[in-house]
Write a structure and sequence with these properties.
single chain, about 270 residues, MetI-like fold, globular
Length: about 270
Amino acid sequence: MNATWSRFNITSIVLGFAFLYLPIVLLVIFSFNESKLVTVWGGFSTRWYGELFRNQGLMDAAWVTIRVGLISATVATVLGTLAALALTRYTRFRGRVLFSGMVFAPLVMPEVITGLSLLLLFVAIGLDRGFLTVILAHITFSMCFVAVVVQSRLMTFDRSLEEAAMDLGAPPVKTFFQITLPVIMPAVVSGWMLAFTLSIDDLVISSFTSGPGATTLPMKIYSQVRLGVTPEINAACTLMIAVVALGVIAASLVNKRREVQRLRDEQAAQRG
């Protein structure tokens, strides 16, 4: 019985991962296809990557996406970290439940509702849609993800380290930057990576809040895919996958190195 269930579980896992990742693998493979037909293999070639970099429309959209992602992820990380600190350290203040609900509402709110609400807000205040409105929209929906990641780390943070620093005369601000922030930095970096990934991947909210000169790469790809998939689109998607994968690997290596260094410091302190 155990062997039967074991084979069933393994088969289910293999089929599940194949369903998730096989289309991505095929997309990457056909990005190196010589043929103009995306479903017919014509030999190995990198010609479509050259065509991609010569496509000024896609390059402009990619540059907009990178700028929006970097700015929105940075601002969302700062605001999300502050929100996590407020929810973790100040457990009793008037309006805490409302504040918590407002911070985490984008997590469960459909993107169509969020995008439409932001559109109505920008129209009501007379703010022309463009680069700024896309950034504000991305900050709004990505900040909550950063808050969740940082808050989970702060819940397990040993506050005796802060108390010891303040007992030695360090003010609260200095204690935060020299004690708290270095400890929670892996969570902050992870939150930034998550916010950046969500920003460069977003289509629905960007469609509601973008304007002239603020077309993101997902919007550009979607507009071209409606007319038919081209090998250039496969190449662009492959590069996006590579950028995100390299970022995740780099963040994992940095976090692992920090963790190893922390363990070495603790062992050295115990020996001392």
